[in-house]
Amino acid sequence: xLVRHYSFIVLxxxxxxxxxxxxxxxxxxxxxxxxxxxxxxxTVIVRVTNRANHNLTIHWHGVRQLRSGWADGPAYITQxxxxxxxxYVYNFTLSSQRGTLLWHAHFSWIRATVHGAIVIFPKHGVxxxxxxxxxxxxxxxxxxxxxxxxxxxxxxxxxxxxPNVSDAQTINGHPGHVPGxxxxxxxxxxxxxxxxxxxxxxxxxxxxxxxxxxxxxxFTIVEVDAxxxxxxxxxxxxxxxxxxxxxxVRAHRPIGKYLIAASPFMDAPVAIDNLTATAFLRYKxxxxxxxxxxxxxxxxxxxxxxxxxxxxxxxxxxxxYPAKVPLFIDxxxxxxxxxxxxxxxxxxxxxxLVAAVNNVTFLMxxxxxxxxxxxxxxxxxxxxxxxxxxxxxxxxxKPPTNNQTSNGxxxxxxxFNSTVQxxxxxxxxxxxxxxxxxxxxxxxxxxxxxxxxxxxIEDWKGFNLVDPVERNTFGxxxxxxxxxxxxxxxxxxxxxxxxxxxxxxxxxxMAFLVENGEGPNESLxxxxxxxxxx
Length: 534
Ligand code: C2O
What we know:
Layout: E1 3-17, E2 20-27, E3 36-39, E4 43-50, E5 58-61, E6 87-93, E7 99-105, E8 115-121, E9 135-144, H1 149-159, E10 168-171, E11 174-175, E12 188-191, E13 196-203, E14 209-214, E15 219-224, E16 227-234, E17 237-239, E18 244-250, E19 257-265, E20 277-283, E21 292-293, H2 303-311, E22 331-343, E23 351-357, E24 360-362, H3 369-374, E25 406-408, E26 411-414, E27 419-426, E28 435-439, E29 444-451, H4 458-461, E30 470-471, E31 473-476, E32 480-487, E33 492-498, H5 501-506, E34 509-514
Parallel strand pairs: 1-4, 3-8, 9-13, 12-20, 19-21, 22-27, 24-25, 26-34
Antiparallel strand pairs: 1-2, 4-6, 5-7, 7-8, 9-10, 10-11, 13-18, 14-17, 14-19, 15-16, 15-18, 19-20, 22-23, 27-32, 28-31, 28-33, 29-30, 29-32, 33-34
The structure holds CU-O-CU linkage.
């Protein structure tokens, strides 16, 4: 294995897009940012220099960070922000990981433009568990706001109002249709007839779940969140923010130009938007004026399609890549997730929209939880995060009489190497809505999912403990539940939150504190000397 060095200089760049110009934060002047390439078991050293005008951190989304929690990156969870003029070196090893992941800023909404791909190839001489593709292409889905994102979100927080939805969706940085603006430039995927391509698709958007399609072509899904899956054929990919999907596409047409579409999935009762990002797949050496072949775009509320897609995913579970599902459970947890309201004097309607896990709206601390844990600094967090919700919810029923949340900076403590089953239940405090939840530091197995209220007896019987899909970001279905299992074999503090940034901002977040073990390689090493201070 090798050591790969990268230099990420965060700087402002004036970008012209969607018929407007503005300064955006970028890494090395690029949007999307540079791709980080490595091989399984390599060590990656990224020196991040902040030459922009805003605090930030970088997170390596889906990287296990075994005993390298100081390099994980969420602001105020594992580190203080890197201030303008400062730098920090992220140093981590990609132990037993290969596939597609993403990196992104993890402070406020900076990740709107500060994100990029992580491509981890298998070890030398180790083949893919699927036919070797002719070529590989990375496709990053994102969003574009015409106004300054930080100013917009700060104002909406102050007023307790929902932030604006984006003005356009992007494919590899190129917007699709923007009302009132005819954009000429777009992304084109050039292919050769008869060849098979591996698409590494990444959803780096802040607040959009996407359907992804290519007219007249289908996908064979072979990997999600850097875990191999049983090959599964589909003509529509569903992908939530933070998720990655590797799909084989066979270029089986002799000629032509085909529409590629990333259209939003939206089940919230507010802010429906119909913006679809478009790009083209084009066969090489075919006439420039070939007619475009179009595709049907799923309506934004196609919940059935999202459930069908996610329910079809299974881990490969082969001899080489077994699914190591924990069969016995030490911690049996039940968390409700949802959006509610709290009183707010300065807000427009006297209330502020908040979100919570087990009715706790997580307040960000002043210094990072990991530093406070490591150095025993008191008064930063409490470890009384509840294992169960404080009152009974019903997803179909009326909102509970008390729809106010409590505030706190609470963690849930796990013994080293203990096993966890966590059922996440969507609640309808305001209205049901799906939530793509991300757990830092672990891959989890999705042993069950369903609609309605989780039934601890009946639903438990149906759990898949053989070949459940392994992910780092998993959707709690609209008005339903998801059950995950993982082994707490990584000491540190690990953030769990909705990857729709709007819900994270409102407080849909908590953290697990995994204690050190007794063995020689079972504790968190001391922080690097350049760890930023608050
Ligand atoms: Cu990709 Cu905590 O985020």
